[in-house]
Write a structure and sequence with these properties.
The protein is mainly α and 62 residues long. It contains three helices and no strands. The longest helix is centred in the N-terminal third of the chain and has 12 residues. This is Integrase catalytic domain-containing protein. One of its GO terms (molecular function) is transposase activity. One of its GO terms (cellular component) is cytosol.
C-alpha cells in the first residue's frame, strides 16, 4: 500500500484528531476508541469490508 493509502489513512485519523491538536493530551483510551472506529469503517480498498472483517477472515483461515 503506498502513499495514497497513507494519505487517506492520515485523513481518516484527522477526522478525530485535527492537525492543530497536540497529541500530548490524548489518552490511551481515546486512541483505542479512534482505532476501533477506524477498524470498523468499510474501505473501498478492501471491497467495502472493514479491516476488522478482513482480520477475522484471515484469522479463521490460518
Amino acid at each position: 500500500m503506498g502513499t495514497r493509502f497513507d494519505e487517506n489513512h492520515n485523513g481518516l485519523i484527522r477526522q478525530y484528531l485535527p492537525k492543530s491538536q497536540s497529541l500530548d493530551n490524548v489518552t490511551d483510551k481515546e486512541i483505542l476508541d479512534i482505532q476501533n472506529r477506524l477498524n470498523q469503517r468499510p474501505r473501498k480498498l478492501l471491497d467495502f469490508k472493514t479491516p476488522d472483517e478482513i482480520y477475522s477472515e484471515m484469522a479463521l483461515a490460518a
